[in-house]
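hiii, so i know i said id send this last week but things got crazy w the move. better late than never?? heres the sequnce for the chain we talked about at the cafe, plus the structure i predicted for it. fair warning i was half asleep when i ran it
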Amino acid sequence: MLAIAADISRRLDFEVVAQRIVDAVIEVTDFAVATVTVREGGRCRRVATGGLADGRIGMTTPWENWTVLLEPGWLVGTVSYLIPPEAPATWADIPDIPVSDEPDAWTADHGLVVKLLDGDDDIVGFLAVDEPRSGRLPTEDTVETLEVFAVQAQVAFANARLYTVAQHQAQTMAKLFDVAKMMASTPEFAQVVPSIVRAVQERIDTVEVSVIRVYGDTALLHYTGPDRPGLVLREEPVTGPLLALADEIAATGCLVINDVSARPELEARLHPRARSLLIAGNQDKGSLFMALSVTSDHEGAFSTDDRDFLRGLADITAVAMRNADLYEEVRFAAERDALTGLRNRRVFWVKLRLALEQATGDRPVALAVIDIDDFKSVNDQHGHDVGDRTLVHVAGRLEGGVRETDSVFRIGGEEFVILLPDTDPRGARMVLERVREAVKRSRLDLPVVTISAGVAVAPLDAATADELFTTADAALYRGKRAGKDRVEVE
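okay and structure toks below
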């Protein structure tokens, strides 16, 4: 999914992105059919399809045909609706699905629709899927995956709107268009910043240039000025005069101060040579999201063209920032367990192999394989909600009990692993005993649980990742057989 997200983040044509998304849905999920439809006033138009012999791109349907499907009782995720056979649905494509008596069977009258929302949470379209290859209703993981794709479609839709504006401006400002293409070539925003600054400096006579990202009450600035060659990264609190300025830019989109001496609360924050100030920004839900700031050593230095250029560049910069955010969200989701927030099995094996490359007799690497004792009884006696909260509790105790250099992973079910670099068997036992005792200190609203752990050390006990895991796992099960709630070191 990470590679798909990176590919999508490089594309600014929404219909191309929508087709890439439906292809990815079919590739990654259980569903063999997927479509993306966008709202256009009182109708919806299909812009992408996959898995249908006759895709009927461009087909329109009444808006009301979709809204009747959004019953709260059919909500199965954050924005996903599992449409039951009895729903008043008018499906454009009726799949040929065999009839089944199984309670979780998918029928020809089922549907799954995911809302696409804009920044104001208004519906801009839908991702719809059908024909699961398994013939079963979707799992929670499948719904989560579909909603990740929906987020990508939403960002692509917003990007497409912004890029349309940028393209119009770029017809008269070739440099702006060149920068926009460069921004679209990478999901890493840090790689884009120098080109943004350079484009401003080539187009406008400046003293200072700042690329600003606002996070609540903090602003992160990439800054360059006459006394600071290169880019300097710094944080500033958005309070007092800066908060008022941020609100002003969010409301107007662009602010010109022809004589900064008329704004003494701002003048003190600028370079001594600054005489005029131009700021263009982009807002998100009424608050300033980002801004580009330029100063000149002349009063009234900025023309209408300068304002248009900086405002257009700010729009495109906002697209690059949102693309970077999406890339980071998807990267995080690809590396983390959704329930506990711990890094997952895939990342564990990568980290383990890297750690073993550094392991020596003087600098051993310990691996602990951990299992919650009798966890099935927690689910059976208290329900899966308590079971999930117990898993989160154990994950927190594990992370809180290890050292800063150690790494905790959830590799499946009630099984966890801890990677302990520069740790011999005695040191590993000390850490695991501390963790084992911490887990037993349960919250009042959760059942008390215990853990068993098996520990192996490389290169003492094994040389490869597979061998080390197998050895630690065998130690774990020796501990289980010996009575549980114990640490067994190879």
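btw The mean pLDDT is 86. thought thatd interest u
miss u guys!!
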